[in-house]
Amino acid sequence: MTTLMRRLLTEVSTRHYPNPPATHAQVEAFEARVGWRLDDDLRAFYLHCDGATLFAPREKAPNYRILPLSEIERARVRMRQENTDTFGAASWYTLLYLQDGDYVLVDVANQVDGRYVLLDAFHETYPVVEQISASFGEFLEKALASGNEYFWLED
Predict the structure, then answer these.
(1) Contact assessment for residue 13 and residue 48, using Cβ atoms and an 8 Å cutoff
(2) Pick from 77, 1, 76: which is nearest to 44 by CA?
(3) Which residues contact 35 (CB under 8 A, 6 or more apart)?
(4) Is it the case that residue 155 has pLDDT exceeding 70?
(5) What Cα–Cα distance (Å) separates residue 142 from each residue in 89, 91, 110, 128, 154?
(6) What is the mean pLDDT of residues 122-135?
(7) How far is CA 71 from CA 17, 24, 65, 74, in A?
(8) Which of 33, 102, 26, 37 is nearest to 68 (CA)?
(9) What is the Cα–Cα distance from 109 to 6, expressed in whole angstroms?
(10) pLDDT (average), residues 63-87
(11) 46 with 27: CB under 8 angstroms?
């Protein structure tokens, strides 16, 4: 685990609302279910906490809810209830729920330095997406510094 991820995970644990960690068996079962492996950032996160809400508990409708492994699914199925290319790439999976049907997706077919890129998926324009981060670690760092705002929507 990188020093950056160690620092970010400590912050999630001390200032936010993490779920209990996933076990190695849960990670393996998730990878078998979806057919792809977590990258190093995501693996470190899920072994530290199996999802989390940032800035506010889940019941207070937080802007950032990092999904537990059990809730990660193909984006086109979650967002359009269809499993066809018309409704987005097969490699896009939900990773964060942002409220009102909006998600941050992980693109498991697109890596930068061995880490998956993250995409903004606005429910009204999906399957049009925009890359917002080169890795989960980069995304988490910016999200934690955002003050509960969507940092990629800033002018």
Answers:
(1) yes
(2) 1
(3) none
(4) no
(5) 26, 24, 20, 23, 12
(6) 94
(7) 17, 17, 11, 10
(8) 26
(9) 26
(10) 95
(11) yes
Helix (H) or strand (E) holding 24, with range, is helix 24-34
Amino acid at site 31: E
Q: What percent of the chain has pLDDT over 70?
A: 98
Percent of the chain with pLDDT over 90: 86
- Tokens 């429910």 locate to 123
pLDDT of residue 60: 82
Residue 134 has pLDDT above 70, yes or no: yes
Phi/psi at 4 (5° precision): -60, -50
Specify the pLDDT at position 153. Answer: 81
Residues near 88 by beta carbon (within 8 Å), at least 6 away in sequence = 75, 76, 79, 80, 121, 126, 127, 129
Taking the C-alpha atoms of residue 69 and residue 130, their distance in angstroms, rounded to an integer, is: 23
**Token digits of residue 72:** 């990660």
- Sheet hosting strand 115-121, strand order edge to edge: 17-18, 52-54, 64-66, 92-99, 102-112, 115-121, 130-133
